[in-house]
């Protein structure tokens, strides 16, 4: 029986880039990218959580894993979803956007089982509510596609994973189709981060 290949045994994405060192924090602004000497990000991760570079946050783990493989990874944390401007703050990614609602499903994050609005958000600085939209993965994906047409968007995380197939939606009392056609994402990855 063949054993799986060690993840770190694959060739790095940017082997020819000399001086590409791990970022102290994954960049969240153009200024931080300039300080690292980056002209662009290869992958931009969009998350509904506050960015904390800690293993309890899936986007931090994914970002650091991708960085260890030679990718230049940027983070857009809790962007203003009312326009596509926030999705342009790091420029156009050379490969793709990676989108997730955060550590919790955005609807569970906003509402109790009795459909009452929650007053706080455990994954936002100051526990302020209202920093992410309902059905955040769908909204963020649509805004990323609006910001840069033709750039692939990959969705993942708990919200995308739970809605990968048709499901009964407690909040609208309807059967909703898969999140993939609703969000217009290019690919859905099953899993928590």
Can you tag this structure with a few keywords?
6 helices, five-stranded parallel sheet, Rossmann fold, 193 residues, globular
Give a topology summary.
Blueprint: H1 30-36, E1 43-47, H2 58-68, E2 73-77, E3 96-100, H3 106-110, H4 136-147, E4 153-155, H5 157-162, E5 167-169, E6 174-176, H6 179-183, E7 187-188
Parallel strand pairs: 1-2, 1-3, 3-4, 4-7
Antiparallel strand pairs: 5-6
Question: Could you please describe the fold and organization of this structure?
Answer:
The chain has 193 residues and is α/β, with parallel strands linked by helices. The chain has a single domain, classed as Rossmann fold, CATH 3.40.50. The protein has six helices and seven strands; from the N terminus they run H-E-H-E-E-H-H-E-H-E-E-H-E. It has helices at residues 30-36, 58-68, 106-110, 136-147, 157-162, 179-183; strands spanning 43-47, 73-77, 96-100, 153-155, 167-169, 174-176, 187-188. The chain has a five-stranded parallel β-sheet with strand order 2-1-3-4-7, sandwiched between helices. It has a two-stranded antiparallel sheet with strand order 5-6. Strand 1 (43-47), helix 2 (58-68) and strand 2 (73-77) form a beta-alpha-beta unit. It is globular and about 55 Å long. The protein starts with 29 loop residues before the first helix and ends in a 5-residue tail after the last strand. The mean pLDDT is 86.
């Amino acid at each position: 029986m063949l054993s799986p290949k060690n993840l770190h045994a694959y060739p790095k994405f940017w082997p020819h880039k000399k001086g590409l060192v791990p970022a102290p924090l994954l960049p969240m602004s153009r200024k931080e990218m300039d300080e690292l000497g980056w002209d662009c990000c290869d992958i931009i991760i969009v998350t509904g959580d506050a960015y904390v570079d800690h293993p309890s946050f899936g986007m931090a783990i994914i970002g650091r894993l991708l960085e260890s493989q030679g990718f230049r990874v940027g983070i857009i944390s809790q962007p203003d979803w009312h326009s596509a401007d926030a999705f342009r703050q790091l420029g156009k990614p050379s490969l793709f956007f990676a989108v997730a609602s955060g550590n919790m499903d955005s609807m569970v994050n906003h509402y109790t089982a009795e459909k009452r609005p929650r007053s706080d958000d455990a994954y936002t600085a100051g526990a302020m509510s209202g920093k992410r939209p309902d059905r955040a993965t769908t909204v963020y994906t649509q805004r990323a596609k609006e910001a840069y047409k033709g750039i692939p968007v990959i969705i993942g995380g708990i919200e995308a994973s739970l809605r990968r197939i048709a499901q009964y939606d407690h909040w609208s009392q309807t059967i909703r189709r898969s999140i993939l056609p609703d969000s217009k994402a290019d690919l859905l990855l099953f899993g928590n981060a």
